[in-house]
């Protein structure tokens, strides 16, 4: 991977940075992405499980899948890609991290200004009263229940559902404000998150994609860095740090 001269200049000088991450940044922590073969569970595609109709039809099955994923998330640790973003935040005055991930690894790596567009997999929400709790469903039992008696569901945004109030607006503002925008480890097919790089570019940001493969976004960005987030982000961080004057 080579960092172009243009990107070198942007990473050194940008005052305002916004980063969008997707499942790919957590792949190196051992959390499977949704696309590709490893996204399948018992031959089912995520789209068949991560929606409210599937939950109403067969909540036991959907909970089994979420409990399986929670175990993976609980054992995972942040990787050098997460760490580099947390450290990049420390060298920029205006830095926003927007994530589609539900694994909480950015906060665990030390990122502070994080917008979780799709919620957190360790939260539970009552289908009846909407009360949020944290991993109340940890125990056995087919479908965990709220104190009100209603069934609990995982506190994530499912396909076809609205994002948490205000989250997208904040993410869009940060994207429009950015001088440099990084889109990391996302297949850029889940909207509205996938529109953020376009919002940034429209507003004049230099937009860079980081992914081992080209995506639907590739032709719309200024530059695609082909490779792993855990290798490329530390290299970008080193570039930024090299620009900080030492006393
Ligand atoms: P996706 O599964 O659609 O795409 C993952 C992308 O990451 C692919 O383009 C792939 O080429 C790329 N990738 C794989 N390894 C990489 C690496 N080492 N470095 C950089 N990129 C790499 O994921 P998505 O676009 O985030 O959309 C799927 C939805 O699934 C999201 O809404 C998200 O909430 C959810 N999801 C979250 C997690 C998580 O929290 N870790 C995991 C799976 C899915
Ligand atoms: Zn309730």
Q: Would you give an account of this structure?
A:
This protein has 10 helices and 9 strands. It is an alpha/beta fold and 247 residues long. It has a 6-stranded parallel beta sheet with strand order 3-2-1-7-8-9, sandwiched between helices. Strands 5-4-6 form a 3-stranded antiparallel beta sheet, covered by helices on one side. α1 crosses α10 (229-242) and α8 packs parallel to α9. Bound molecules: nicotinamide-adenine-dinucleotide and zinc ion. Residues 22-28, 31, 33-35, 100-103, 118, 185-187, 190, 210-213, 215, 228-230 line the site of nicotinamide-adenine-dinucleotide.
Q: Spans with pLDDT under 50 lasting ≥5 residues?
A: none
Strand order of the largest sheet: 3-2-1-7-8-9
Shape by Cα distribution: elongated
Rg: 19 Å
- What is the number of helical segments per DSSP (H or I, 4+ residues)? 10
Helix content range: 25-40%
Order of helices and strands: HEHHHHHEHEEEEHEHEEH
Q: Biggest sheet, open or closed, and with what strands and sense?
A: 6 strands, parallel
Strand content: 15-25%
Class based on secondary structure composition and strand pairing: alpha/beta
Number of strand elements: 9
- Which small-molecule ligands are present, each listed once? nicotinamide-adenine-dinucleotide, zinc ion
Mean of the pLDDT scores? 93
């Amino acid at each position: 991977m080579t960092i172009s001269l243009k990107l070198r200049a942007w990473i050194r000088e940008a005052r305002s940075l916004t980063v969008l991450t997707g499942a790919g940044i957590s792949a190196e922590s051992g959390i499977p992405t949704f696309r590709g073969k490893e996204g399948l569970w018992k031959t089912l595609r995520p789209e068949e499980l991560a929606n409210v109709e599937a939950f109403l039809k067969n909540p036991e099955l959907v909970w089994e899948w979420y409990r399986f994923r929670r175990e993976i998330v609980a054992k995972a640790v942040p990787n050098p890609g997460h760490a580099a973003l947390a450290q990049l935040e420390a060298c920029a005055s205006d830095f926003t991290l927007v994530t589609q991930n539900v694994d909480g690894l950015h906060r665990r790596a030390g990122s502070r200004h994080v917008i979780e567009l799709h919620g957190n997999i360790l939260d539970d929400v009552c289908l009846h009263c909407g009360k949020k709790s944290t991993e109340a469903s940890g125990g056995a039992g087919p479908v965990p229940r709220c104190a009100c008696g209603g069934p609990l569901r995982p506190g994530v945004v499912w396909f076809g559902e609205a994002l948490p109030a205000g989250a997208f607006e904040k993410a869009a503002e940060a994207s429009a404000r950015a001088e440099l925008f990084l889109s990391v480890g996302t297949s850029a097919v889940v909207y509205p998150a996938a529109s953020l790089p376009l919002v940034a570019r429209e507003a004049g940001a230099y937009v860079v994609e980081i992914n081992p493969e080209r995506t639907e976004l590739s032709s719309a960005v200024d530059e695609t860095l082909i490779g792993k987030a855990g290798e490329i982000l530390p290299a970008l961080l080193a570039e930024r740090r090299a620009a900080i004057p030492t006393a």
